[in-house]
């Protein structure tokens, strides 16, 4: 029975690709309440991301409601578990729209689990806001598809963070011969595209482009090739474990170039796992890594509130969920008492900026650009942790 239902859902999603199907509608808004829905991985392979992101959304909802809500309306947040399974995400989305009557989908988790149900959201005329993935499809608009106006995102894409890192390092640290070691998959392609475009923009010669398969543990040949080719800066198109492996291999070979990593490596685990081998590595990210011991003001209050509610320290995954709902609240307040899908779209496309409490680049949308941020910060591993060295960086002079 469930499989039959899923087949019907997927068939309906396919129909959503037709522009004529896009009819924006408003549901989930009463005089006292705004119903929002999300799906997170609460039980699957990336639950270490999904659970804190869901908790961040819940904390934001609590704070908004305690402060009186949005123009007098309280947030009702409904969280579904996708298990990081696109099929489950489709079913969860159908349930949230049809049974729960959500006003908007807010901060769903993951690329594949966001892509599969997206046509359902668009077909329903429901806003699809701030998914926790940097994938281009979450914000790119096709002029021939009016339903694409419903998509917004607030996360800097992998492509951009790689270009920002290379641009900053070459311009500010004097590197002249950058190369790239990257994972040979779709994620890696984002990084290699960025690398090729940035070295061309900088008018410097492209160097070594050495790949490895997902799950690799031996990086000797890639590092040796980059060293032999005279590379002085290695761009890391990799995730945490592989990035640690690459910098560790370089140290074993007695080679100490500069390293610059993108967002998959800009996490607390990298300096913790890499130890002395991680020292000096540059990383690009959107939000400063939380340091509870040094936090003050609103950030300290956020940390204390999260610990009181959930019993653990918050991390950057928490911030991803928290900021998603806080961004929604900012623009929903701007939309005024008569909250509709159209009034919220107009507010979001107004060019007004949302600034979070964490020192991130401001978020701003327009009628032609639904990616809210194009800047990132640059950090460096010092004394065993990421420390910010430059904020609000881009790759366009």
Automatic annotation (TrEMBL):
PROSITE patterns cross-referenced by the UniProt entry: PROKAR_LIPOPROTEIN
CDD domains: PBP1_ABC_ligand_binding-like (cd06343)
Family matches, as Pfam families: Peripla_BP_6
Signal peptide: 1-22
UniProt-listed SUPFAM superfamilies: Periplasmic binding protein-like I
Alphabetic keyword roster: Amino-acid transport, Signal, Transport
GO biological process: one example: amino acid transport
Stretches assigned to the Leucine-binding protein domain: 34-385
Family recorded in the similarity comment: Belongs to the leucine-binding protein family.
Protein name listed in UniProt: Leucine-binding protein domain-containing protein
